[in-house]
Amino acid sequence: MAVVHRTYARALYEAARDAKSIPVVREQLADFVAATETVPDLHALLVNPKLDARFKRSTLEAVLADADTLLRNFLLLLVEKSRAGEVEEIAREFEQIAAADEGRLDVELTTAYELSDDEARAILAQIEKASGKRVDATRKVDPALVGGIVLQVGSLRLDASVLGRLTRLRHELTTRS
């Protein structure tokens, strides 16, 4: 994630915390991002740099008429700063900040084959023990990994897969003279 996404997300999170409106802002931000994913015209409005900022602003004001004031002002600020097309990334960062504040760790666990529930629980228990946080995991399967696992926690990626090891070995062999 870009530093700018984290900066905007942190600012929104701290303002929501001060206003005691984190749950409302969190829910409405997630709903807005979901709307941008399901309504192509809304997404196009946000990402099109050729559209006038005043047009974007007036359209968003209408769409966000019933939204929390803090969130509405934040999204309008993104339009003003030409960052509206980055709302999905900012929302992901916001969610990570909220999870960390709650003592939760969101992890993406990718394996070469489908793990049994017991195997997945064992891996997640080790992560919880090491991090001291409650782990919420999404599981994916990628046969290209051949074996091993890949853990993604925010922008941190731990690649303990066979494919990852082969890739690192290939890179090492080609860069050494």
Describe the protein in words.
The protein has 177 residues and is of the alpha+beta class. The protein folds into 2 domains: 3-99, N-terminal domain of the delta subunit of the F1F0-ATP synthase (Peroxidase, domain 1, Orthogonal Bundle), CATH 1.10.520; 104-175, no CATH class. 61% of the residues lie in helices and 16% in strands. The protein contains 8 helices and 4 strands; from the N terminus they run ααααααβαβββα. The longest helix is centred in the N-terminal third of the chain and has 17 residues, at 22-38. The two termini are 34 Å apart.
**In which order are the strands of the major sheet placed?**
2-1-3-4
Taken in chain order, the helices and strands follow as HHHHHHEHEEEH
Largest sheet, in brief, is: 4 strands, mixed
Under CATH, the topology of the largest domain is which? Answer: Peroxidase, domain 1
State the helical fraction.
55-70%
Find the CATH superfamily of the largest domain: N-terminal domain of the delta subunit of the F1F0-ATP synthase
Mean pLDDT: 92
Distance between the termini: 34 Å
Question: What would you call the shape?
Answer: globular
Count the beta strands. 4
Given the helix and strand composition, which structural class is it?
alpha+beta
Topology record:
Layout (H helix, E strand, L loop, with lengths): L2 H16 L3 H17 L1 H8 L5 H11 L5 H12 L6 H15 L2 E8 L5 H15 L2 E8 L6 E6 L2 E6 H14 L2
Parallel strand pairs: 1-2
Antiparallel strand pairs: 1-3, 3-4
What is the structure about, briefly put?
61% of the residues lie in helices and 16% in strands. With 177 residues, the protein is an alpha+beta fold.
